[in-house]
Amino acid sequence: MNLPRALVEPISKIDNFFFAPYSPYPLALFRILLGLLMLDTVIEHLTDDIFLYYGPNAVVPLNSMACRWWQFNPVFDLIALFPYTNATYVVFFGCFIFACLLVVLGVFTRFTVPIAYLMLLSLHKECPFNLNGGDSMMLLSMLILCFGRSGDALSFDSLMKSLKKDWRVVGFVPPVQPIWVVRMLQMQLTLAYLDTFLWKASGTKWLDGTAVYYATRMQDFMRFPLPFFMDNLIFLSLLTWGTLIIEAWMFSLIWFRKTRYTVLALALMMHFGIDLFINLPVFEWVFMSMFILFVYPDDLSKVASWIRQKVTIKFGPASVLAFDGKCILCVRGVGFLHRLDLFRRIELIDFTDHNNHDRLIEFDFARAQTEMLFSTKNGWIGGFRAFREVVKRLPLLWIVLPLMYFPGMTNIGDALYKKVAANRYLLFGRCDDGYCEIHKGGAA
Amino acid sequence: MAVTENLNKAESSLSELPKEPMPTGMQSVTSGYRLAVYLFIITYFSIAVISLLPAFAYQIRLANGIAWLSHPFNLVQNWKLFCPDVRSINFYSQAVIQFQDGTLKYYEYPRLNQMPMFESYRRQKLCKIFQDCMPWPDFALFWPDAARQIARANLDPLNQPVMISFSYNWAKVPDAAHYAKQNELPEPRDNHTFFVYQVKPEDLK
After folding, report:
1. What is the residue range of A107's domain?
2. A203, B44: Cβ pair inside 8 Å?
3. ipTM of this predicted complex?
4. Is the pLDDT of residue B10 over 60?
5. Which of A340, A408, A432, B192 is the least crowded, having the fewest Cβ atoms under 10 Å away?
6. Contact A139 B117 (CB under 8 A)
7. How many Å apart are CA A319 and CA A110, to the nearest integer?
8. Is A55 left (phi over 0), alpha (psi -120 to 50) or beta?
């Protein structure tokens, strides 16, 4: 009778380890970082010498790679489907850059992450001789990311999804997801540290404290010169042993909440240090980007709150955006803006709700029926001008701001706004005609 | 005054911060999904561990056994940067191109330490292929390709390249007991030729 109980508990712990509900934010942040690193790799480190690595004039052409390297093993290579010309590689690079951008922005993430992975894999297959450990970790992470819902937060996908739901019912917070993809990435990272630690511990230079001395003397890897106070054997020996200790902690103590942030902070310092003095582009950054997966979601939320609080202290309290809670277009529109409002600079108030009336000082209810109103230092402004003020407060939309100040844009914008606002019930329906209730029921 | 007080209050410790709402509402996970996930995790990490084990007869057999799965998706891992030991020599690769009329042209592959800092950062992958890979036996299969590539790059219809030889210049880093500062390292001068290739007419097409 004891045996099943003895088994049930560990099984349940393992199950909880992999399937506990978890916030989508760490994975979403990692998707953005990884996308940026892929963009950096392809734009900054590959395009200059693209035809040395890939194509008919490459150092190792494809037929030679296939005969001598791939041999009879199966290979996944998308580029091999197209004509073997330089133009193919130029187009492929263009498509890959576009795919990486979509990954960063979280556009159709379910498709773009696997596509970006397969494109990266194809590049790795065609030229494995220009890759370092950072590239390998990037590829493995992308493979694991293909199975996660990294587009559930901080993405174009989540914005689009939110437009289909009433935020007053479902709120602004994305649903949790099983943690297993985050766990796999965490395990992958710690496995890399375990392996490198074991190999280093089996060498002599790491144990006798001279490894960093030799590593900083490799002329082809030198970046910034060591400052005078570091350029001595005592300091370099301490760095050598320190590296070993931090790498040992990165697969052991990192799993415990009490020690996690100390270990992460030390590992960050180690990787920054290596990046400063040793020329290994992207390598250190891929590893450091994975640290975000070890940050607890409630701590991420504390950091977000802290940043928003600092912004509030610097720029004052949020401005009020009064909207018509009976208009579907208005409800969805302001919900969309709120999702883009990283620093919570806009407070949404439904002026049709009587409970909110005491918060709307000097408010013109008749005017609010014709246009959305936004509070500024100079009082309430409406229509296109209000929209422009809202955009000013949303850094993610700053890219369209210059357009809104084009000569004549105010008149065009006002006319367009009035046209849509006047017909909003006709075009999109009213909440009190039953549409919202049906929708709320569906969303709930 | 009230606003200032409020702002001062807001500048409180992290523990007093208003909590951001946390995500909720996970869809239920079916047992089939769980099983598939466990199978994926076990397969993935089994391949990883097999590829990370030190090479011995049984490991090689296992690695060959899973190659059908690990090879197409590059699942083989290797985290041996600077280990088990950091190398203790500096070197750079070069090629000598001999032309039909007997003239010799010396070509030095890009050396990062002679580039401006930002360029050496951007083009570090050149170092990976020409310094870390090319001179060493693992790349020997591709030495003829690299020779053909350099021959084509130096094509002169009136005076064709006829022979390519690859070599590297190297120097030992003074051992730690004879500590050398970064700017006191000896220039790599000892030469070792590792490959000579007779260029064929079809190589130049």
Report:
1. 22-176
2. no
3. 0.87
4. no
5. A408
6. no
7. 36
8. left
Interval B15-27: pLDDT, tens: 444 455 656 666 6
Task: State how many domains chain A has.
Answer: 3
Are A62 and A39 within one domain?
yes
The pLDDT-based confidence of A428 (bands split at 50, 70, 90) is: low
Contact A187 B3 (CB under 8 A): no
Which residues from chain A sit within 8 angstroms of residue B135, using beta carbons? Answer: none
What band does B7 get if pLDDT is binned at 50, 70 and 90? very low
Burial zone of A371 (CB within 10 Å; 0-12 exposed, 13-18 middle, 19+ buried): buried
Query: How far apart are alpha carbons A272 and A268 in whole angstroms?
Result: 6
Which one-letter amino acid corresponds to residue A7? L
Instruction: Determine, yes or no, domain membership for A207.
Output: yes
Return residues 49-108 of A near B (CB < 8 Å).
Answer: 49, 52-53, 57-61, 64, 68-70, 73-76
Q: Are A300 and A26 in contact (CB under 8 A)?
A: yes
Give the pLDDT confidence of B172-193 residue by residue, as tens digits: 999 999 999 999 999 999 999 9
CA distance A397 to chain B (A): 23
Which residues, at least 6 apart from A310, have a Cβ–Cβ distance to it below 8 Å? none
Q: How is residue A146 annotated by DSSP? A: T
Cβ partners under 8 Å of residue B193, min gap 6:
B165, B166, B167
Q: Is residue A260 part of a domain?
A: yes
Q: Which of residues 67-96 of B touch A (CB under 8 A)?
A: 67-68, 71-75, 77-88, 90, 92
By the CB < 8 Å criterion, does A204 face chain B? Answer: yes
Number of structural domains in chain B: 2
| Pairwise CA distance, residues A151 & A47, whole Å | 28
Residue B3 lies in a domain: no
**Which token pair is B132?**
């870390």
Across chain A, which distance is largest between two alpha carbons, in Å? 82
- Whether A225 sits inside 8 A of B7 (CB atoms) is no
Check whether residue A327 and residue A436 sit in a common domain: yes
Q: Which two tokens stand for residue B64?
A: 């060959």
Interface test with A, best of B11, B22, B29, B81 (most A CBs within 10 A): B81
User: Are residues A380 and A414 both part of a single domain?
Assistant: yes
